[in-house]
Amino acid sequence: MAAAAAAPGPGSGPGDSPEGPEAEGPERRRKAHGMLKLYYGLSEGEAAGRPSGPDPLDPTDLNGAHFDPEVYLDKLRRECPLAQLMDSETDMVRQIRALDSDMQTLVYENYNKFISATDTIRKMKNDFRKMEDEMDRLATNMAVITDFSARISATLQDRHERITKLAGVHALLRKLQFLFELPSRLTKCVELGAYGQAVRYQGRARAVLQQYQHLPSFRAIQDDCQVITARLAQQLRQRFREGGSGAPEQAECVELLLALGEPAEELCEEFLAHARGRLEEELRSLEAELGPSPPAPDVLEFTDHGGSGFVGGLCQVAAAYQELFAAQGPAGAEKLAAFARELGSRYFALVERRLAQEQGSGDNSLLVRALDRFHRRLRAPGALLAAAGLAEAATEIVERVARERLGHHLQGLQAAFLGSLTDVRQALAAPRIAGKEGPGLAELLANVASSILSHIKASLASVHLFTAKEVSFSNKPYFRGEFCSQGVRESLIVGFIRSMCQTAQSFCDSPGEKGGATPPALLLLLSRLCLDYETATISYILTLTDEQFLVQDQSPVTPVSTLCAEARETARRLLTHYVKVQGLVISQMLRKSVETRDWLSTLEPRNVRAVMKRVVEDTTAIDVQVGLLYEEGVRKAQSSDSSKRTFSVYSSSRQQGRYAPSYTPSAPMDTNLLSNIQKLFSERIDVFSPVEFNKVSVLTGIIKISLKTLLECVRLRTFGRFGLQQVQVDCHFLQLYLWRFVADEELVHLLLDEVVASAALRCPDPVPMEPSVVEVICERG
């Protein structure tokens, strides 16, 4: 048992001492086991061979690094009984066997790796041994080679010096031969047109001939060469002035002339003059395309022509000028910039003229592609000629065209809105002309709203092409900020919404109902359209705009609440004007019916007058019309006898004494006094009170205007007995039908009471009709 405790690994004998060399075996195996666990990704505590909980310095910890078998055995003898000691031995034997099994499993599983590692190490030993032998042989060979090289150099030293001298003499003779043959070479090159070769020959010999010109032979060669060079320069100038070749050939001529020593300032002027001629020819070709005949090509072809012709030529000229006349310094650069600025402004003017012809088109795709190519083409000259400002000018043109397109789309939206209103007018007039039913107001409203919204979406999609990622100018600050916020959102969308409200409000200033007046149904439709915009459409449109055009500009924009308030105010004005117009129509009928009748000599009433029936019919039609677009609204509680009340001069208790049987000549003064006292205590009726967005409020306003007009017309007339009775019958008939249209039936009662009372005050013989007779006549009517 003690031996088992003292020998945790296999191979330990029962008498082994922990101080001996064999005591290191279990410790080494535990460390190896921990390293294998670490290799296979186990925890650090397991890799170290101990749990993380116990003290690492505990000598009684079997898995610890400081395990002492003697201390452990002493502890077991002191603390454990015999049964527990035997259990511990059994458990320890089991653990030892498990550890041996684990070790064997690890060895078997990694056998191939061990074999491969062993072979690799053996091969590396062999390879290094061979390499050392080869390095030794290489060092020996290098020493031999060095020795041979030293001996050869010493042997050939004298011969090398002689060979060097002979080579120098040979090179000098070749140079002299080249100098003596130079005139003939130059002549042959000039005859063959090999001007570049001739200039290179002259350049190689110029310094030598200049240095030895004091010698007669060299002076003669120099004179001959100068004559030939002068003839060469004359031919190059002639070729340059002819201008038949392209820019590269002319640049080559200038380069050769500069190499021959011609004055750079003069060549610079001539070069720009010839370049101007070619570029002006390109401009004339572009200008000819803008003429009335033949028809101008589309804007994309025009920009392609200008980009490949003028812009490409300008790039070639700028590149050649900077390469040839770089020595001119800032003065030469400014001269080139002024040259490019002048011709570029003329090119830009032609481009703007052609772009102006596209303002009438509704499609932006071709225009944006043309602007994209125009802007891309000017990148190269803009980089070459930064001082000329060509790229900035091109960007300004693109921005100006974008702003003009926004204005064009705004005009298109306004025209579409006016066209929708024209269609509504025609639809409203068509049933009256053809005598058949047309589309309802709700359908017309839906058509107008959908038409406007579709036009707005189409305009947004069209102008969104200016901010597409593949467009070269879309990353400019203007198109990432101001174009989106102030251009699209404010100028186009907000501007159209305000324009629509202003156009709608202009119908409130139309003349009377005759002639070219606005149909009341159109006023009602527009008021509902503006109210719908206030409730939902404006917020939807602006949200759609902000999503499509990610605004990166901090400039202030119009809040949604402001636009909604403007739209609501427009709807309120339109609805108020609708009430006034419809009230005026009914008032005109009532006024004419009162003014054109002789109320003193009228016959005893037997029927309700036709105009009153017409008033009820028109009011009913208005009620149906308003109900198509607006909700019902809130009414006050109605009394049960609203339709049974009979108007008479005795309908008010305060008026009963006015027409009592004891009527005397002094009664009129008392009657006026009582009437005035009654008005003081009666509720004041505001005829033109604000109209709410519901059917009841609209009908209440129209009926108030109509009955107030009837009251004022009655006050201007004098009535006989039967005239008073006719008014009594008419008012009772109106009361039978009008009370159901208003918010408060007492309002109708008060106004009709006023009408009958006013007629009675203006009647010399105020004898009312019996209420039962009035009811019979009205029911029969």
Automatic annotation (TrEMBL):
The keyword Coiled coil applies. It is found in: Golgi apparatus, trans-Golgi network; Recycling endosome. One of its GO terms (cellular component) is nucleolus. The keyword Protein transport applies. Residues 1-18 have a biased composition (Low complexity). Keywords: Coiled coil, Endosome, Golgi apparatus, Lipid transport, Protein transport, Transport. InterPro entries: Cullin_repeat-like_dom_sf, Vps51. It holds the Pfam family VPS51_Exo84_N. Its main location: Golgi. Residues 1-66 are annotated as: Disordered. Belongs to the VPS51 family. Involved in retrograde transport from early and late endosomes to the late Golgi. The GARP complex is required for the maintenance of protein retrieval from endosomes to the TGN, acid hydrolase sorting, lysosome function, endosomal cholesterol traffic and autophagy. Acts as component of the EARP complex that is involved in endocytic recycling. Component of the Golgi-associated retrograde protein (GARP) complex. Component of the endosome-associated retrograde protein (EARP) complex. This is Vacuolar protein sorting-associated protein 51 homolog. It comes from Bison bison bison (North American plains bison). The gene is VPS51.
